[in-house]
Amino acid sequence: MAETQHESVRLAPDPAPGLTKVGGDTPVVSPPAPRRRRKGIGWPARLEIALMTGPTLIVFLSFVILPVAMAAYYGFFSWQGYGPAEDFVGFRNYLLILEDSTFLAALRHNGTIVVLSLLLQGPAAVLLALLLNRQIRGQTLIRVLIFVPYVISEVVVGTGWSLMLHGDGVVNAVLGKVGLGWLQSEWLSDPKIAIWTLMGILTWKYIGFAVILFLAGLQGIPEELTEAAAIDGASYWQIQRRITLPLLGPTIRIWAFLSMIGALQLFDLVYIIWGQYIADTAGTSTMATYMVANGRTAGEYGYGNAVAVVLFFISLVAALFYQRFVLRRDTEGAITGGRR
To answer: Where does the ABC transmembrane type-1 domain lie (predicted)?
Structure first.
């Protein structure tokens, strides 16, 4: 009998969490533990945040949001740039933009420039960065020569290339001297090759920025990974394909985003080299050159503001889609700290 009592004591279950036994086997409910109240932000911290972010918000609202809002407002009027805007036309300006074949051609040119910039500059910049990341003779000089075009003013670049690529310019003269006269062409006015001329100039000027950006990304890749792969028998190109390029992916995606937005808003080089009217016939016009030609130059500032709004929203939608579907995996961990 005693053994049975001892066995029943051993088999008695423990009280559930939150229950205690008082004076016997009767459980008593214990009061829940008090919740820890989150400490709010005090007024000194709020004042500090306001002082830090206030000037930035004022500048952003004054020079970004307000101009866009004003452009959208004037886009609803037929306005010549002076006096009050009184001739309200509603969405007529925006409908004319979307129906204008010249604007649609400029939009296609911008899309072509976006795609070709990524396809031409990206691989070339990666190869140059991989080359310059190794110890070679004249490494510093090569880096300087590649980066110098990027820091030269667009006015200087545009003027220089327009003089050299003219029908009687240096390029055709040199081709004739070396026996390659059959390659001479109207580099700037022939619609079949003008867009490729533009892409060559853009690649020459902006590839230095991509190379410097990729070199900075390569510096952040631990050498231990490549050394371990080399010890395991991986070749140089296997290391680059399996280790270097995946780890360089975030830098490449950031560069692609900057290149895409810059190509959508391209204006200066096209305007300087081709002008506002020749660009249409040469097949190199962009949305920005269309805006200037049909807005400021034509004296239709209301229409020009509508074009600016359309250009802004096209760039905004492209940026949001890119961030949502491409940059998300890069920014998600940085914002959430890697928590899911």
So the answer is: 107-322
